[in-house]
Amino acid sequence: MFSWLIGKTAKSSELKEAESVFTEAELKLIQNRFSEEVARQDGTTLGRSARAHGFGALDVHGLGALLGPVWKCLDPLIASQLQLQLADKADGKVHLSGLVIAKARAERLGEQASLEFSYRLLSADGRGAGYKALEAAALSCLRLVGAVPWPSSSRTPQAVGAVTTLQPSTSATSSSSTGNVSVSGTDPPAQIRSRNDQGTDNGFTDGISSTYTTSSTSSSNNNLQLHLAAFCQGALMHDRAEQAASPVRDLHLSYDGYCKWTKKCPVLHKALCSLLRQVGAPSADATTATAAIAGQGTTAAALAIPVVATSGTDPLRLPALLQLGKLHASSTLLQPVWTWALASRLPPAQRVEWRLVFSSQRDGKSFNTFFSRISAAAGPTLLLLRDKAGGLFGGYASQPWAKSGKYFGDASCFIFSLLPALQVFPGTGINENFQWCGVGFSQLPGGIGFGGATAVRGHFALYLEPSLDSGMSRPIATYGNTALASEQVFQIDTVECWLLQPPEEDPSGSSVSGAHKPGGGGSGGGGAGRGSILGKAAEDRAIMELAGLKLHSAGLKDEPLEED
Where is this chain compositionally biased, Low complexity type (predicted)? Predict the structure, then answer.
């Protein structure tokens, strides 16, 4: 297939394996797209040299043109690492064979190959993924999905300096605080230096403030910095036990730690593995978007990026946030970083539209209003809370909320902490105490919650009191979680609940069908089933279940009285 590229040299086993996972048509599209960019370089020194030797190759400018709007989103550190993965070690240029191999690893050769691909983008010097690399990657991906603004000045596609291919005898210079590789010295390119000299935001300085530099002090920028810090800290905590004495910014995430973190929070891995999807894509929209950004700068980029991001690439699709009412999007608890991170755990059908069914900022702290809204939401929901100490946390409920004297939900439920650090806790499988809704019972916990200790009444992983003034979060085996809030018993500042898919039409006129109600039978008592002996005493039965007593009468039917 690629004989024009490699001449008489036999194909490597890596290239053969990579080619085998693409169809002939897909390989042809990749080759054609690559050839177009090589042809554009024909008048340059690189282009003439490549043609003279009978093969084509791209420098960093050509790679930027090949990736189009994706490249323009990348922080220079991540752009440099991507080029290193694609480039040939002999000449530092990107050849077609390297592009095909990298694309196959990222997209087609299985979970281990894709994890290695994304981890290498974050691990510049072999020490592991450092804070700076995690921050740069998260910021790049947030730009890609349009979740955060681009820098005020667009840049010509290029990495920071000339990327040096690491040879065995070459030692990379690393930062003492983060361990990330410095490429070709420490000075930025002339274009970026000149913008810095003019006091213009370029968006590529070090640290959390790299999103918006120098003079910007708005609250939204500060919030983004805080949220990026929480995202990075949450990732690095997976290796914290081995590096407990080190500050967070000096930690490095090992490959094993990265794999564990990715299972709980896959968003960064999925996004990094999608960086090459545009190469060889048949979408005319992607080509149009690339041309628009190349010629018109950031205004066109802001419009074109979502087109590229949503062209068959689910990891890069963010849900539309609807029904905010008088609230501005920036005032909600569900800020872009959290939408991006949490949506990656959900199936595609639940990443289309998220509707704000309740907000204490908008609707007040009325539990009746709160429960009527969430119980009318016929679908999975996302509950978010902020406590008065600043902690931000919540849970994903897979089943609609409805009064029940027993636990319900399924293994897709999870709880999470967002601030001060992003941590996700899926079900452990130890028990099935995923969701709780004891509203209306006099002797059972009357609020809603997640996770519970079966034999200990009133212990929850996350629980809201009916007053909406206080709650509880304790370590519980259901989710294997730490306490989510600032304190185990916390005071509530704000509550939000989002419906994660549009309500479905119900021909019967009921907002929640019986099949979705806890208990499965639609009886509202949620436990014994219609007609069982204890069905008329659901609360007593629930108390016995919470105490760990076995109910031998469950499922038995009332026999009709015989007539004489």
Answer: 169-186
* Cα separation, 419 vs 461, whole angstroms: 16
Report the alpha-carbon distance of residue 346 to residue 266 in Å, rounded. Answer: 10
Which domain range does residue 285 map to?
3-166+174-181+204-296
How many angstroms separate the Cα of 318 from the Cα of each of 50, 99, 314?
41, 28, 9
Over 90: is that where the pLDDT of 393 sits?
A: yes
User: Does residue 251 contact residue 243 with C-beta atoms inside 8 Å?
Assistant: yes
pLDDT average, residue stretch 480-486:
95
* C-alpha torsion angle, residues 263, 267, 268, 274 (rounded to 10): 110
Amino acid at 526: G
List beta partners, residue 436.
449
CA gap 389, 265 in Å, rounded: 25
Identify residue 264 by its one-letter amino acid code. K
Task: Evaluate the omega torsion of the peptide bond into residue 149 and state whether it is cis, within 30 degrees of 0.
Answer: no
Same domain, 290 and 156: yes
Same domain for 245 and 348?
no
- Separation of alpha carbons 321 and 518, rounded Å: 27
Residues whose CB falls within 8 Å of the CB of residue 381, separated by 6 or more in sequence, listed in order: 357, 374, 396, 397, 400, 401, 497, 498, 499, 500
pLDDT band at 479 (very low <50, low <70, confident <90, very high): very high
String of DSSP letters for 186-204: SPPPHHHHHHHHTT---S-
**Does residue 266 fall inside a structural domain?**
yes
Q: Residues 487-532: pLDDT tens digits?
A: 999 999 999 999 997 655 443 444 433 334 454 433 333 333 334 4
Q: Are residues 280 and 326 in the same domain?
A: no
Structure confidence at residue 546 (pLDDT): 54
461 and 322 in a common domain: yes
Count of domains in the chain? 2
Average pLDDT taken over every residue of the chain: 75
